[in-house]
Amino acid sequence: MMAAQVTAAVAAAALATAEDGLDRFWALSWVGFPVVGAMILVRRPGNRIGRVLFASGGCINLAVAWAVVGPVVSPEGATFLWGSWFGSWLPLVGFGLLPFFLLWYPTGQPPSPSWRLWGRVAGVWLTVVTLYYAVRPGVFIDSPVSNPIGIQALAGMRNGAIEQAAGGSLLVFGLAAFVSIVTRWRRAKSVERQQLKWLALAGLSFVALDAVAVMVGENPVGDFFAIGAFVVGLNGMAAAVGLAVFRYRLFEIDRVISRTVGYAVVALLVGGVYAAGVFVTQLLLPTSSDLGVAASTLAAAALIAPLRRRTQGWVDRRFNRARYDAGRVVEVMAARLRDQVNLSELTGQLMGAVARTLQPASLAVWVRGERT
C-alpha cells in the first residue's frame, strides 16, 4: 500500500507541474506497473514478477516525473543536480528490467535452467552499463550540469560506442526474452497457458491501439488519441498481469479473446461496407453525396446484428472450439428432451452430454424415487 501511495504522489506531482496539457497524461503511462508490482509483492512475495514490475515501473515513473518536473526546478540547487544525475540512468534500469519480466512471467522462474544462465548474464551486463552511466563524466544530455561523481578516467570512453552497445544489448535481450515466452508457451499446461493468454491479449491490444493512433495522424485529435492509447495500453497490460498472477477469473480469457476477435472482425467488415457504399453511390450519384452517405450508414447499421452472429459463430469454431462444441451438445440435448419419455435412455443421454461438455473425472445420476 505504501508503494501505491508513493507512486500516486509522484504521478500527482508530475501532473501538477506539467506545462503542456497533454504532458500531464504521459505521467500516468507507467503508474500501473509499480502498483500491480506492489500488490504482487504483498500477496505473492515469492514471485519475482512483483519485484521486477515494482522496480521497473518505479524507475520509469521517477524518470518521467523528473522529465516533467526538472525544467521548472532551479538549475543552481542541489535538487536539480542530483535529480539530473538520477534521471541519467534510471530509464536504463527501468527499461532494462522489462526483459526479465518476460523471462519470469508468470511463475517468477525462467522456463528452463539454460534461461536462468541467460538471465544472469543479462543481469551482469545491465549492472555494468548502469554503473557506467552513473559515473561517466561530462555534462548530462538533458541538463546543463556535470556529473557530480563522474570519473575523469572514463572520459576517453564517451565516444558513443558504449551507448550503442547498451541500446543494442537491450534489443537483443528483449528479443531473447520474447523467445523464452514462446518456449514457455509450448511447454505450458492449462493454468500457465491461460496466464500467457492474458499477457498476449494485453500486448496485442496495446499494439492495435498504437496502430490506430498512427493511422489517425499528427493532429490535435491524433495526439490526444496517441497518448490515451499509450496510457490505456500500458496500464491495461499491468492489469492483465495482475489478473493472471492472482488467477482471478483466469479461464474467462478464452471468452474475452473470442469476443474481442469477433467484434474486431465485425467492425472491419461494417467499416468496409460503409466505405464501399459511399464510394459506389458517389460514382453513381455524384450530385447526391448526402444520399450516398445516408444509404451507406443505414446499410452498415442493418448488417451489424447478422454479421455479429455469423462472425461470432465462425470465431468460436476456430478460437474457442471447446465452448462451441459444448454449446452444440447442449442444443442437441435440449431438442431430445422434448421428445424423450424413457427414463433410462434419458439418463444415458444426459450423462453422455455432461461427459462431453464438462469432462468430469467421475459422473453419477441420482433419481428420486416415486412416492406411494
Can you walk through the features of this model?
By secondary structure, the chain is mostly helical. It has three domains: 2-192, no CATH class; 274-319, no CATH class; 323-358. The protein contains 14 helices and no strands. It has helices at 2-17, 23-26, 32-43, 48-69, 78-96, 98-104, 113-135, 161-187, 190-216, 220-246, 253-284, 289-319, 321-337, 343-358. The longest helix has 32 residues, at 253-284. The protein is flat and about 90 Å long.
Structural class: mainly alpha
Number of helices: 14
The biggest beta sheet reads: none
| Share of helix, binned | over 70%
Q: What distance lies between the first and last C-alpha atoms, to the nearest angstrom?
A: 64 Å
Series of secondary-structure elements, N-terminal to C-terminal: HHHHHHHHHHHHHH
Strand content: under 5%
Shape: flat
How many beta-strand runs?
A: 0
* pLDDT < 50 stretches: 13-19
What attributes characterize this protein structure?
372 residues; mainly alpha; 3 domains; flat
Short description:
This protein is mostly helical and 372 residues long. It has three domains: 2-192, no CATH class; 274-319, no CATH class; 323-358. The protein has helices at 2-17, 23-26, 32-43, 48-69, 78-96, 98-104, 113-135, 161-187, 190-216, 220-246, 253-284, 289-319, 321-337, 343-358.
